[in-house]
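Table S2 (continued). Query chain:
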Amino acid sequence: MTANASPVTIREFQATDADGLRSLWTEVGFRLIGDDDAGLARFADRNPGLFLVAEHDGRIVGSTMGAWDGRRGWLYHVAVTHERRRSGLASDLVRRVEDGLAALGCARVLVLVEESNGDALAFWQSRGYEPRSTRQLAKAL
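Corresponding output:
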């Protein structure tokens, strides 16, 4: 049986997942800002049922973090290991969080994607997300 054919469990984040998530996110090239243990726990507490991990044989192989501010939903850190890409895992993770957001009354979901990440842009557009002409600004506090 190939690695991609093995069963994957999707479940809510647990505090013991933090190191595995940071490893996954480093592997896929995410910048780790606010992803320390306390930050992850705070995010999970504020967004119950919307912070999901995919696990295979004790290893984190996928993630998505959903948040709702009462007006719009947000998706963060949607990631899948390189060997699990194009298996439908990322789409499954996103669908589950979209369903959770919709159940809360969320009518619109936003995601931040680096303009230079063509694969990510193609993924999101294939899921019905449309590019916007807005500009992201940030300030460290």
